[in-house]
């Protein structure tokens, strides 16, 4: 895999983009993350790899502002998001898209599912203006169609979501996140249990998003996938990041012996 970016340490990457700085978080009596620093720059794809239960999903949920960290900060463009007003924080959340392992589509057409993502992410003023535009016949569907083209489902707009395969449903979920034009996409095991055709479609969509300037973070168990799609790779173990760097270096000459053992399959977890 050709190296696309010069290596920089995580601490040097967190002034711009979306980042977590020294975050810790847990649930009940269980600590999940401990002092994690991680950032995503616009126009790059970062893969987060590691055994199950090490905190990958929790990190993505902190970055998407589902949770407020117990300690540390989540920042957008160098500013602590949780120190902002609720209104400003909501505006930040609208800049972040997240795709879960389960697509969770509505019982509606493919188009309506993708359209709903754009609708719910608008503030009330924009929703009213859009409703008035529709009454005047000015409603545009270009963004919806374009998002479905990216995932290879442009011909399925009027199809019922309930008739889709699992892989197709996941592609619709990706299109729904892409349609409202976020700055960052967070993907939690987006191709888990998908067949090769749907996996390839998702990976191509990730590359399209990156080329458009979006910052993309992907939690994945698939080492080959991480090597194919990522500019950088972060290896997570026991609630911390033990290695972060360009994908080519991390997979060929990891510096942390635990990262090497995990990548080579020697670390049983």
UniProtKB/TrEMBL annotation:
Residues 1-14 have a biased composition (Basic and acidic residues). Pfam families: ABC_tran (PF00005). InterPro entries: AAA+_ATPase, ABC_transporter-like_ATP-bd, ABC_transporter-like_CS, P-loop_NTPase, PstB-like. GO terms for molecular function: ATP binding. It comes from Halorubrum tibetense. The keyword Cell membrane applies. Residues 1-20 are annotated as: Disordered. Residues 18-263 form the ABC transporter domain. The keyword ATP-binding applies. Keywords: ATP-binding, Cell membrane, Membrane, Nucleotide-binding, Transport. PROSITE patterns: ABC_TRANSPORTER_1 (PS00211), ABC_TRANSPORTER_2 (PS50893). This is Amino acid ABC transporter ATP-binding protein.
């Amino acid at each position: 895999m050709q190296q696309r970016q010069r290596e920089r340490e995580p601490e040097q990457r967190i002034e711009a983009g979306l980042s977590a700085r020294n975050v810790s978080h847990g649930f009940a009596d269980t600590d999940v993350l401990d002092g994690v620093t991680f950032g995503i720059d616009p126009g790059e794809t970062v893969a987060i790899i590691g055994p199950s239960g090490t905190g990958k999903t929790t990190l993505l949920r902190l970055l998407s502002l589902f949770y407020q960290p117990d300690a540390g900060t989540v920042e957008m463009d160098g500013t602590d998001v949780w120190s902002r007003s609720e209104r400003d924080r909501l505006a930040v959340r609208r800049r972040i898209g997240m795709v879960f392992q389960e697509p969770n589509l509505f019982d509606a057409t493919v188009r309506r599912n993708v359209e709903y993502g754009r609708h719910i992410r608008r503030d009330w003023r924009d929703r009213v203006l859009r409703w008035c535009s529709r009454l005047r016949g000015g409603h545009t569907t270009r963004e919806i169609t374009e998002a479905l083209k990216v995932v290879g489902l442009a011909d399925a707009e009027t199809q019922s979501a309930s008739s889709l395969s699992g892989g197709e449903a996941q592609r619709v979920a990706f299109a729904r996140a892409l349609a409202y034009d976020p700055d960052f996409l967070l993907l939690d095991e987006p191709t888990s249990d998908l067949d090769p055709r749907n996996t390839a479609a998702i990976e191509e969509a990730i590359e399209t998003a990156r080329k458009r300037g979006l910052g993309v973070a992907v939690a994945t168990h698939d080492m080959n996938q991480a090597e194919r799609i990522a500019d950088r790779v972060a290896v997570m173990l026991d609630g911390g990041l033990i290695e972060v760097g360009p994908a080519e270096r991390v997979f060929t000459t990891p510096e942390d012996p635990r990262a090497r053992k995990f990548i080579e399959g020697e670390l049983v977890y």
